[in-house]
């Protein structure tokens, strides 16, 4: 099955029609000859794009996840070094 790329103007018009018509998305999609899940995705993305904080929150969450992972790695490295120091101290008689 191939994918079909719709022009941005068509997608915008389809989203506007789906929002303003009051009809179910599946019905609007059928009338336009578009898969209903495709139209639903367009509407969802348009709604997410209208909320200004969504992109910032997503970037912030990704940054927090990256920092948490880095902290976990650093803690593990610190623990390994702590054990190595204890091992070397035993060998050298410190």
Structural class: mainly alpha
Kindly state the mean pLDDT as a whole number?
Answer: 88
Indicate the multimeric state: single chain
Radius of gyration: 27 Å
Total helical elements: 4
SSE topology string:
HHHH
Q: What CATH architecture of the domain at 1-50 would you give? A: Orthogonal Bundle
Low-confidence stretches: none
* CATH homologous group name of the domain at 1-50: Winged helix-like DNA-binding domain superfamily/Winged helix DNA-binding domain
* Fraction in helix: over 70%
Shape: rod-shaped
Strand content: under 5%
Q: How many strand units?
A: 0
Organism: Thermomonospora echinospora
Pfam family, one: HTH_Tnp_1
InterPro entries: Homeodomain-like_sf (IPR009057), RD_transcriptional_regulator (IPR051839), Transposase_8 (IPR002514)
Protein name: Transposase
Descriptors for this entry?
single chain, 94 residues, mainly alpha, Arc Repressor Mutant, subunit A, 4 helices
State the gist of this model.
This protein has 94 residues and is mainly alpha-helical.
Mind explaining what this structure looks like?
The protein has 94 residues and is mainly α. The protein has a domain of 50 residues: Arc Repressor Mutant, subunit A (Orthogonal Bundle), CATH 1.10.10.10. This is Transposase. GO terms for molecular function: DNA binding; transposase activity. It holds the Pfam family HTH_Tnp_1.
């Amino acid at each position: 099955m191939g994918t079909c790329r719709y022009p941005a103007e068509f997608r915008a018009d389809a989203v506007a029609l789906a929002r303003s018509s009051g009809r179910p998305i599946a019905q609007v999609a059928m009338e336009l000859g578009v898969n209903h899940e495709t139209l639903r995705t367009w509407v969802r993305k348009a709604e997410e794009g209208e909320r200004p904080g969504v992109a910032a929150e997503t970037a912030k969450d990704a940054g927090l996840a990256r920092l948490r992972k880095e902290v976990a790695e650093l803690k593990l490295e610190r623990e390994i070094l702590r054990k190595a120091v204890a091992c070397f101290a035993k060998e050298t008689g410190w």
